[in-house]
Amino acid sequence: MEEQTICPWCDTEIVWDEEIGPEKHCPHCENELSGYRTMQIGIDRDEDEQDDNWDEEQEEQKQDDSYNDESNEGFRQMNVSWLAAEETIRQITDSQEEAPECPSCREYMLEAGKQTVSLQPTVHAVTGKPVIQSPFETVTYICPSCFQTSTVLSEKARNQMLELLAPKE
């Protein structure tokens, strides 16, 4: 049975596929479905409970203010560094032939370099040959947001792999 929900951000109906399961991001506006924030308003609460909540909110505000004091200079410096790097990161991703999305945070990744890989290839019984000839080249990408790395076959290695897997007639 299909489950349905409404995106709290764009009010679009989302139909979940049973095999894939619930979406984490709205396919229309790409906002995080579980990240929608709500605010509780204590209209029906008695005054004692409201006073308790007021005290908790004041404590949370004090903790939030502590992030802005001078002792957290490293935290603020990281945000400034990130903002300064954003334009350079955008220019680099725009100039790349490919800019894959990070599997962790979905930011566009930066090409870090190429590497030649040499291995003893496995010969598969189905084809009687390996899926790729060694050595081959890979491209490494780095996420500028969460610093995950990802490696993919180079364009030449992809073409080589497809030629080896394509049936000969």
UniProtKB/TrEMBL annotation:
Superkingdom to which the source organism belongs: Bacteria
The organism of origin for this protein: Paenibacillus glycanilyticus
Ranges where the record places region Disordered: 44-77
The protein's name: Small CPxCG-related zinc finger protein
Compositional bias of kind Acidic residues: 45-59
